[in-house]
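=== RUN LOG ===
request id: a7f3
mode: sequence -> structure
chains: 1
length: 286
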Amino acid sequence: MIQSMTGYAAASVESPHGALAIELRSVNSRFLDLQFRVAEDLRAAEPMLREQIAARIARGKVDCRLGREGAGTQAQLLNANALQQLRALAGEAAAAFPDAAPFRVADILRWPGVLAEPALDAERTRALLEDLCRLALDELGAARAREGARLAAILRERTAEMRRRLTEVAPLVPEAIAAHRARLAERLREVLEAGVEERIRTEIALFAAKSDVDEEITRLGAHLDEVERVLATGGSVGKRLDFLAQELNREANTLASKAAGLKIADCALELKLLIEQIREQVQNIE
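=== RESULT ===
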């Protein structure tokens, strides 16, 4: 299956400390480039996330965001150290301002750091995050596969159009060479003296050799066969398809430079346009 390097996925799961949420975004890149934005209390999970993503994705720039949302279901606890510090500060404040009203309980509970959440259960949290990451990667893989199927369909369409162009141009080559041979012979007879038929035949033979595009047409057809084979094989084929697009472009350039007629030159130009469209799409394939 062909996969695009572009995709998005998000997943969340409830935990005693609030909802764990992960977000994955991927775009095209020459290699696998992983970027992480992880909440500080979940930082220990980053190596596991990196390992899971690298096992499922071969190419692309992947941005992974992981955090907690909302309050957990476990009751908050009083922070004894924070209470002791607050008590000391309150004593100093009472000595400085003896007429000041004492702290209310609500004021104490609102003081930063007084209420604390229980420590995370590392083992349970890791298990939840592993399942969450797999769920997000499944969704991301499905999104990349859907986009990849569309890209593959576009490539097959462009490949079929190129084959049609090659089918049209092949019969034109002998006709174009024969027409140009006749024009060349006529001009040579006009400018050269009599008895130079051997020179005329030599010039025509040189022109025919330079204008022979059978090899380029054959190579273009072979490269198109390989493109279709790679698309049918699937997997991480983006680099292979990019190489084939470059080879197709090289042969099309040669065909254009050796074109013996206007129709052949027009066909070569249309081939180059189709190849450029293929190269643009191939840049997004994993």
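=== NOTES ===
The radius of gyration is 35 Å.
The CA atoms of residues 158 and 274 lie 6 Å apart.
=== END ===
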